[in-house]
Description:
The chain is an alpha+beta fold. It has helices spanning 2-5, 85-91, 105-112, 118-134, 145-158, 166-179, and strands spanning 11-17, 21-24, 29-43, 46-51, 54-58, 64-67, 72-79, 94-96, 100-102, 138-140. 36% of the residues lie in helices and 32% in strands. The longest helix has 17 residues, at 118-134. The two termini are 29 Å apart.
Amino acid sequence: EQERANPVGGIYHQWEENLSFNSHLHYSFEFLYVFDGIFELTVDEVDYKLNKGEAIIIFPNQIHTAYANQRSITYVCIFENSLVGEFYRSVKNCVPTSPVFSVESSLVERLASEENSRYFVKSCIYELIALFDKGTEYIERRSKSSEHIGRILTFIAEHHAEQISMRDVANMWRSFAVND
């Protein structure tokens, strides 16, 4: 997960058949596209079922889980917020009301090509963001809980070789509440 959470060059690509993963979150955006089949996932306790040609953008600090209940071929692209800085700044305190949208496979294939330069990939990501943003409304995040959980999970991951107590985590959580 460390490779995905901190992608080299700011971008992580993965093709997967019957993708499944446990609940997690990260500080980057995640784009998932279904090339074939049906892909089921949960984002912030809302279930989604994506069909061939559909995609979803998961925002930073959104808890998400995927289930390989049916056959699917998916493409995953995790990209750092800095690659879409202007967009990130405009939505960093929001989440989309409907994160699922349709995408032409040719755009995803251009994005996924390993021969592309960083700038070409960035232009493809902005093209996806433009498609996404065109049909999406945003609401303010209801709470900072997922952000706090993300910071705690990052702390645990960075200090996993050390002795960490529940008291340490509770103190960290209280410090977030005081600073909010």
